[in-house]
Amino acid sequence: MSIEALILAKLHNKPEARAAKNGKPFVTCKVRAAVADAESVFINAVAFSESACAALLALDAGDSLALAGTLRVSAWTGSDGTARPNIDLVVGQVLTPYALAKKRKAAAQADEPRQPASAQPRQAAGEDFGAAGDWAEGSHE
After folding, report:
1. Residue 106's CB: how many other CB atoms inside 10 A?
2. 86 pairs with which residues across the strands?
3. What backbone phi and psi angles, to 5 degrees, belong to 111?
4. 3-class secondary structure for the chain?
5. How far is residue 69's CA from residue 31's CA, in Å, rounded to a whole number?
6. 5: phi then psi, degrees, rounded to nearest 5
7. Are 75 and 39 in contact (CB under 8 A)?
8. Least confident of 30-44, 60-74, 89-103, 122-136
9. pLDDT higher than threshold 90 for residue 106
10. Is pLDDT above 90 for 12?
11. Which of 61, 91, 118, 136 can pair with 69 through a Cys bridge, CB separation 3.0 to 4.6 Å?
12. Is the pLDDT of residue 13 over 60?
């Protein structure tokens, strides 16, 4: 049985790019999601779509994210006899705080009334790059 799910989690390890036997690329990672009583569960995630793979590979261990996809839950028994959950997620979409900030900024700009080009102030050469190094430092904007 599988479930369509939206998981809010933190990356436990850096996502790893791999290739199937047929050469198709995919990305695997393990995320940690909070559950009741301040406990957490680990979820094994795999992404096949180009956009989901790219989004995951841009992140590092500890980054927050939301994953949407098909969830499969099973159980295994530990050496001490305790039943433990095994959770696998085939990722369809990835949303990160960086992408969310970018979408909100774009939406806010779309809502602003546009001025005619003649009414806009002229910028000095190079001002459109912002502070030195903003774009080179890997800003997520």
Report:
1. 10
2. 74
3. -80, -20
4. CCEEEEEEEEECCCCEEEECCCCCEEEEEEEEEECCCCCEEEEEEEECCHHHHHHHHCCCCCCEEEEEEEEEEEEEECCCCCEEEEEEEEEEEEECHHHHHHHHHHHHHHHCCCCCHHHCCCCCCCHHHCCCCCCCCCCCC
5. 14
6. -140, 155
7. no
8. 122-136
9. no
10. yes
11. 91
12. yes
d(CA 8, CA 77): 26
pLDDT digits (tens, 9 = 90+) for 37-94: 878 999 999 999 999 999 999 999 999 999 999 999 999 898 999 888 899 999 999 9
Of 5, 30, 32, 37, nearest to 15 by C-alpha is 30
Record the tokens describing residue 141, joined without a space: 């904007």
Q: Nearest-CA neighbor of 32 among 10, 15, 53?
A: 10
